[in-house]
Amino acid sequence: QLQLVESGGGLVHPGGSLRLSCVSSGFALKDRAIGWFRQAPGKEREGVSCVSGSGGSTKYVDSAKGRFTISRDNTKNTMYLEMNSMKPEDTGVYYCAATRQLFGQCVLRTDTFNYWGQGTQVTVSS
């Protein structure tokens, strides 16, 4: 079974940090474009960050630049999203995603990704 499973969500105070993890099973993350998306209540799912299949291109949504870092460990088939200096507007359900195609480009659009995790809740509140 091909799936992605996220973990690491939770409640954090403004200014705090969280690290999300996402493990793939049934397929390897190596050479695939990977990404993190989030969906706040009442809003559409938006792209937060992605890395191309080759690893040569990384993108962040403007609100995440300088605060979030995407990475992956191919030996563990795991991707990460390190989030620092968190703000209440970072609240939402966070989803990891990966492409079926190898060596794909990094594009922060939901329709460019084929595999999705079930989501993990992140709440930033005092």
Shape: globular
Overall structural class, as computed from helix and strand content, comes to mainly beta
How would you state the average pLDDT, rounded?
96
Amino- and carboxy-terminal Cα gap: 39 Å
Low-confidence stretches: none
Instruction: Please provide the ordered H/E string of secondary-structure elements.
Output: EEEEEEEEEEE
Features:
11 strands, seven-stranded mixed β-sheet, four-stranded antiparallel β-sheet, 126 residues, 0% helix, globular, mainly beta
Overall description:
This protein is mostly beta strands. The chain contains no helices and 11 strands. The strands form 2 sheets. Strands 2, 4, 5, 6, 9, 10 and 11 form a 7-stranded mixed sheet that branches. A 4-stranded antiparallel sheet has the order 1-3-8-7, with no helix packed on it. β5 (46-51) and β6 (58-60) form a beta hairpin. The N and C termini lie far apart (39 Å).
